[in-house]
UniProtKB/TrEMBL annotation:
Belongs to the short-chain dehydrogenases/reductases (SDR) family. Signal peptide: none annotated. GO terms for biological process: fatty acid biosynthetic process. Pfam families: adh_short. One of its GO terms (molecular function) is oxidoreductase activity, acting on the CH-OH group of donors, NAD or NADP as acceptor. The keyword Iron does not apply. The lineage of its organism: Bacteria, Bacillati, Bacillota, Bacilli, Lactobacillales. This is 3-oxoacyl-ACP reductase. The keyword Oxidoreductase applies. InterPro entries: NAD(P)-bd_dom_sf, Sc_DH/Rdtase_CS, SDR_fam. Gene3D superfamilies: NAD(P)-binding Rossmann-like Domain.
Length: 266
């Protein structure tokens, strides 16, 4: 058990985030989390009513508000004294082909998924630099951020941005024992269910086999894998992990190869 450790989890009231809150709580951590929707924070608080405020700190907060995000981190530090694990899990998607996407759809997704990471993460990072011992940060990216996806230019762009942020902070945080990694999770959530339903229906219509890549685990299984990574002393930093339920893989960087252009006919 980790009775004196603290985890700050963004977007911790639904899906993988909720699984993370439960997993860290049941393993002795004090947990701080929030949601932009009051109904979700109230639901979480009611579910875990047996955990007092000094073990589970829940608040309604719009992460796009930088001042409030920074204030929340300071509240967590004042209440618990430290932050051992920080998981940036907040995210939305508004899918549409790029030619039809509106500026509003682009801006909202980038704002929640990427821009909002600045203020809160900076406050956490500053605190972790002051603490002794090992600390861990995880940014939730996506296969879309790694490989792109039709109709997800905004979402893929935001998730790719988190990979760059993760790798940069891994370099800056190394001398302070701050390990920073990105997670590409596969889990059945409100966000992935519509996609899986479409794939399932398409397989029924065409007779094709259901693709292995979409045989995915539960949010609780992914949360358990992240918890184990955060407590693994040989984790390392600057990596991208792929999690499908309890299955953990690490992405290896693509090797550079020469590219020669053949002379084309005029």
């Amino acid at each position: 058990m980790n009775m004196n450790k603290v985890a700050l989890i963004t977007g911790g009231t639904k899906g993988i985030g909720r699984g993370l809150v439960e997993t860290y709580l049941l393993n002795g951590y004090s947990v701080a989390t929030f949601s932009s929707e009051k109904i979700n924070t109230e639901s979480l608080r009611e579910t875990y009513v047996d955990f007092p405020e000094d073990k589970l700190h829940v608040k309604t907060l719009d992460i796009r508000n930088e001042d409030l995000s920074r204030k929340f981190v300071r509240e967590v530090i004042e209440k618990f004294g430290r932050i051992d694990t920080y998981i940036f899990n907040a995210g939305i998607c508004q899918d549409k082909s790029f030619g039809k996407m509106t500026g509003k759809e682009w801006t909202e997704v980038i704002s929640v998924n990427f821009t909002s990471a600045f203020g809160m993460t900076q406050e956490v990072f500053r605190q972790m630099k002051k603490q002794t011992g090992r600390k861990t940060i995880f940014f939730m990216t996506s296969l879309s951020g790694l490989e792109g996806s039709f109709g997800q230019a905004n979402y893929a762009g935001s998730k790719a941005g988190l990979i760059g942020l993760s790798k940069s902070l891994a370099i800056e945080g190394k001398k302070y024992e701050i390990e920073v990694n990105a997670i590409s999770p596969a889990a059945l959530t409100d966000m992935t269910s519509p996609i899986i339903e479409k794939i399932t229906q398409n397989c029924k219509n065409t007779g094709e086999l259901f693709p292995d890549d979409w045989k995915i685990g539960s949010p609780k299984e992914v949360a358990q894998s992240i918890y184990e990574l955060s407590n693994y002393s040989k984790l390392g930093t600057g990596k991208i992990f792929s999690l499908n339920g309890l299955k953990i893989e690490v992405y290896k960087p693509n090797a550079k190869v020469s590219f020669s252009m053949e002379k084309e006919n005029d």
